[in-house]
Amino acid sequence: xxxxxxxxxxxxxxxxxxxxxxxxxxxxxxxxxxxxxxxxxxxxxxxxxxxxxxxxxxxxxxxxxxxxxxxxxxxxxxxxxxxxxxxxxxxxxxxxxxxxxxxxxxxxxxxxxxxxxxxxxxxxxxxxxxxxxxxxxxxxxxxxxxxxxxxxxxxxxxxxxxxxxxxxxxxxxxxxxxxxxxxxxxxxxxxxxxxxxxxxxxxxxxxxxxxxxxxxxxxxxxxxxxxxxxxxxxxxxxxxxxxxxxxxxxxxxxxxxxxxxxxxxxxxxxxxxxxxxxxxxxxxxxxxxxxxxxxxxxxxxxxxxxxxxxxxxxxxxxxxxxxxxxxxxxxxxxxxxxxxxxxxxxxxxxx
Length: 351
Description:
351 residues, alpha/beta, Rossmann fold, Hypothetical Protein Yjia, Chain: A,domain 2, 2 domains, 7-stranded parallel β-sheet, 6-stranded antiparallel β-sheet, 9 helices
């Protein structure tokens, strides 16, 4: 009896530097996916706290969407084993499409090595590799090796937040992008992460899918194992209501906190504090999902760009900063500041 060959699973990589709007773009794609299709999303987070999956909208919690997160390093390097395992587990569930969102600090060449290795490549159809860039910060971003690699690896190159860039910045992006060699399959400018769904299949059934693309890949140095030995994701409880985790490598540093869910923050004051941190030159990214006196809120900031929205109930509050690797981190002082934005619990009712 002839065994029926299973159809290949379409896989897309959505890449770009920190704060360029990848999560917003994936939210848009999830909201517009065909209703009969089951999608999977693999989110990579550089820090150890695990926030990116929580920043996905309710679309990611709907029936037909499965989200898996790999935290604690770049999936191209220090978290590569967890990435390999997560890809296999998601593919075993036979989704109609798998979206991969690497951290903005990852080079894509190592990720593509995994997707084209025996045992994985036979199950997938590696479709459009999409890289988002911000035309307002393009020149500074391109000085980072990982961003240059993301651009080099892309089939589709999109200038996100084009509405927030100046006319000269948009024109500079177009001139630069059109001059790239080899030429990209598609170049355009978008707003608010609104990637047209059809771009996911702009590249399909690529002949080179059986061979790893000839891309340069420089692995990050191993992280200090004493800072975060492999373990389960951090949790907080009444005995230890605030848990701090730090993650360091030559690429960047991350410090974050998990707060027990009964702790309630002052919404306005903590928002102002997070904004001030995001405006600090050495801070590259600020992310948080917090239980405030106004409900649960998510914060996603990179410099002047920020996203603030209400979100559903979470099992705990989380805050994480990604900071330049040569900048000093006073984690104790930052934690002390965070605690000052907690609201006092109301007094018990009489009787």
